[in-house]
Amino acid sequence: MDEQIGQALSVFMGFFAIMNPIANTPIFLSLTANDSADIRRRVAAKSLLFTFTLIVVFCLLGKVIFDLFGITLPAFQITGGILVFTIGLQMLHGQQSKVHSPVAAADKPEDAITGELSVAITPLAIPILGGPGTIATAMNFSTTGGIPGMVITIAAFAVLCVITYIFFISGQRLVRRLGDNGLSVITRLMGLILAVIGTQMVITGIGGAIKLAH
Q1: Which residue in 52, 104, 188, 199 has the most C-beta neighbors within 10 A?
Q2: Which residues lie closer than 8 Å to 72 by C-beta, 6 or more apart?
Q3: Tally of CB atoms within 10 A around 135
Q4: Which residue, 23, 183, 47, is CA-closest to 127?
Q5: For residues 169 and 21, what is the distance between their CA atoms, to the nearest angstrom?
Q6: Residue 165's pLDDT is what?
């Protein structure tokens, strides 16, 4: 039980760091700046529902995707680890990762928004919330530990989606309280956590590759 709780916390923190709902709240607010509170809630709900569905699909079909393309778990862990580490390193230096949360999507919402549904799916769900880093993290966690690991991964991500929704709908108060300096500190802290997680994924992948070689 203690091991499962520790795994759940590890998975949750990994997802929290890479989705970073606190730092993404200002982006959400900028994309829904001209919307009413009701529409803002609907956009938040739709984007998170789509993101959750996307992650569940990759969690459930991760092994099938690996078998289809002839990908080994160690290879994915190494590649995913490098990707997660790169995102974390950019965040650690106070930069917004173009792979994870493209600045252009937040700076020019008029180019991305063609209606309530479109802004919920892109750029919010993809690539801001459910980008390559989030997908790589989900598949890495779900493919280790069998069925229990998959259940823990999906449950942890579901909890994070609920928390992210709360951040989004109460975002204006949060941004005012934290300020730019507070958001910067949180982003750098999440970046450090991501860099460490990415490094651990690479180490685990290298260990698995050595075992396969023997």
Answers
A1: 52
A2: 66, 208, 209, 212
A3: 21
A4: 47
A5: 11
A6: 97
Which pLDDT score is estimated for 44? 95
Q: Which residues of 140-174 are buried (b: 16+ CB within 10 A; e: fewer)?
A: bbbbbbeeebbebbbebbeebbebbbebbbebeeb
Joined tokens for residue 83: 């990707």
Per-residue pLDDT for 109 more than 70?
no
The continuous run of DSSP H or E covering 20 comes out as none
Chain-centroid distance, C-alpha 123 = 13
Q: How many CA atoms lie within 13 A of 140 on its CB side?
A: 32
Report residue 68 as tokens. Answer: 């289809």
Place of tokens 């917004």: 96
Q: What is the average per-residue pLDDT within 25-47?
A: 86
Structure tokens at 109: 């919402």
Question: Token digits for 62?
Answer: 């991760």
Q: Which residue has the tokens 């020019």?
A: 108
In angstroms, the CA 194 to CA 132 distance is: 14
